[in-house]
Hints:
The complex is a heterodimer. Chain A is of the alpha/beta class.
Amino acid sequence: xxxxxxLIDKIWDAHVVREQVGEPSLLYIDLHLVHEVTSPQAFEGxxxxxxxxxxxxxxxxxxxxxxxxxxxxxPIEDPISRQQIDTLRNNCQMFGIHLADITSDDQGIVHVIxxxxxxxxxxxxxxxxxxxxxxxxxxxxxxFGIGTSEVEHVLATQCLQQQRPQTMQVVVRGQLAxxxxxxxxxxxxxxxYGTAFGTGYVxxxxxxxxxxxxMEERMTICNMSIEAGAKxxxxxxxxxxxxxxxxxxxxxxxELFDEAVSLWKTLKTDEDAMFDQxxxxxxxxxxxxxxxxxxxxxxxxxxxxxxxxSDFADPVVKRSxxxxxxxxxxxxxTPITDIAIDRVFIGSxxxxxxxxxxxxxxxxxxxKVSERVSAxxxxxxxxxxxxxxxxxxxxxxxxxxxxxxxxxxxxxxxxNPDVLAPGERCASTSNRNFEGRQGRDxxxxxxxxxxxxxxxxxxxxxxxxxxx
Amino acid sequence: xxxxxxxxxxxxxxxxxxxxxDAIIPKQFxxxxxxxxFGQFLFYEWRFAQDGTPIVxxxxxxxxxxKASILVAGPNFGxxxxxxxxxxxxxxxxxxxxxxxxxxxxxxxxxxxxxIVPIVLPDDQVQTLLELTAAKKGTVLTVDLEQxxxxxxDNTTFSFEVDNYRKMLxxxxxxxxxxxxxxxxxxxxxxxxxxxxRPIA
Lengths: 468, 201
């Protein structure tokens, strides 16, 4: 009998092109997603070395980071953004790569459209020059972010030189209480175990709380694996996964789909397989999470207060907390629900999917955004936008006073015109609360879509469990 | 890529945990399509005020730290975005080595691709270096990649681990794409039986 294996090892082993003692493995890449920001220097590198793209048919590009979320029929005002988008267009044309351009029905945030189009499939190795590539792990794929040099490497060879990662299981026991979402779960795990517990590991999320999650929620969990330092995060595919994928544009169709499902069903960790590390988390006692600092691990329960630097023993951490509170303009001891906000951003590759918008719309319906708040919804893709409009969600948001925008990364990283002004405080469904992330001197609090929606109405953070 | 053997230079302390790549190079500077010229934007929002004037008490704005080529920092350095613009900016500013108790994976990897040595040392040794370089301006450290040592001014040495293959690439300034392409026959053979790859048509 063969040795029991983890899902991570099964996918890894199926992709090793070459192994040699003392060298990294040569790992085959099944899908390479490309966007405008991290690719121009890689294509330029190919041209300088007179190399070609080995497998344009395993490469798919879109524009998402830079694109304006306002009227798309107008030219992009920022000349440097426009140049970067034009550069991607030219590169895709020169090397024969499929591009979901700004006006394409398939356009959207790269980590939203991959799954939506059925490009993301179980068992694949997937890379992109973007750290949130971990999102695709929700389908039982081994998906991770790479730098531009590695983008060039994959374009040229369809492979990467990689050391076999260590494996970690995060076992989530119990079930989430009503009103508590995947975003709360991943923020809770990172608040408890820190922003580096996953460094050097690929993480498999397991346990009954994970199995009960929808695909959208699994994507939120895997998306933020990078915020725990993990190389990748994944979840074994199951009936929820197969049901999501059936009929998707680039997924296998008909009988071929059923054949694929038989293969995908083998993609699970064998009983008795050993992980290099295990951590556990109890989902049943989790309450809504709100970050108060400038690192995703600086989070608290909505029922808590802003901590004091003296709560932390380590001198470097203490100083980081002190700097974070100064930057965030928060006094230690302030109840989280007393923190008033100016802006609300609902969107991003973490929480810009249809289910996220439904969850936010449920909260907003029949209410008005607080006078002190400016709020916007940015769907993760055109497909999400169209689906929301079919369901009338856009009208719910518009009636409440939200802006309803075109798809893109938008204020998650504020490369386009969607930026916080200095000092503005934002309830954001995105993934990073770093200094300056949403605009210089802007203050970001990470929350779930429902919590962001409730904060928009109340003008400050509220506990979604008691909000009416 | 330039080959790296040993390097001696002024070390600058940046005593913070979780220094992310958004801080190293803010997003407004990611729109350029070149690899060069990012040094002027390094740590931009810590180095420059809103109106573009230098913030005088930020360490890299004060002599002799403005000539530093070795950075000493807190744990989980380079976390966040995969942007390779971060090592490009550090390199363009003049940094050849970064010392920290831990690094985020993608950043760590990106350093090697650009000829920067990321050095992991235990907490107490990093603390020693942070204090030493803060107390004595212009402290010169030496990074000896071959011996895998950081040498202090009093000749104390701190040893560090580095993967042998990566060390070999760095010491020879090799292009790893070229090395991978030497195995093209293996890649082609793999593709004939690839189980999960699915051409986009």
